[in-house]
Sequence to fold (185 residues):
Amino acid sequence: MFLNNGNTLIGSGNWCFTHELPQPDFTGHVRSVDTWIHMNAEEACDISPAMFKELILPFQKRLAKEFGLIYYGCCEPTSKFWDGGIETIENVRKVSISPWCDENFMGERLAGKKIIYSRKPRDYMYIGSQAAFDEAAFRQNIRQTIAATKDCKVEYIFRDVMTIHGNGAKVKRAVEIVREEAGSY
Fold:
């Protein structure tokens, strides 16, 4: 086991930078409570929130207590399972906001909290799937996220870019657009 509280990647594109780990009583011997873990429930996409709370959440909460911080989610709509569900896992520090999430709902729920709104836009649609980069559509998508996250801590994860058609400038331009839009608010 090793510390993963710095320049370490786990789960669905999560970088583990934090000053909260290791725990204050850390002696040099790494324990699970000194580390991040990635949890998700992609297999639960088609079940009801009540079924999630009954069949999945109790086991995830028990496991989560063994670790320091939790990055929760991948591509599932975490908004569906938030109220009375994922929100009850005490050490969740980042939550995935995939294209299938209700961005406004999650923005309201995470506003003012220590939990990071980990946005995964449909990057493959804007950056990867076409030879040309639709900057206007990408910019609009970023603006929607910014509007939904006024009082949130936000990170963007671009991870589903399978091809950029040999045009690395698209990725650079996407980062510039995110910075431009973030700077305007």
In short: The CA atoms of residues 24 and 78 lie 30 Å apart. The longest helix spans residues 169-183.
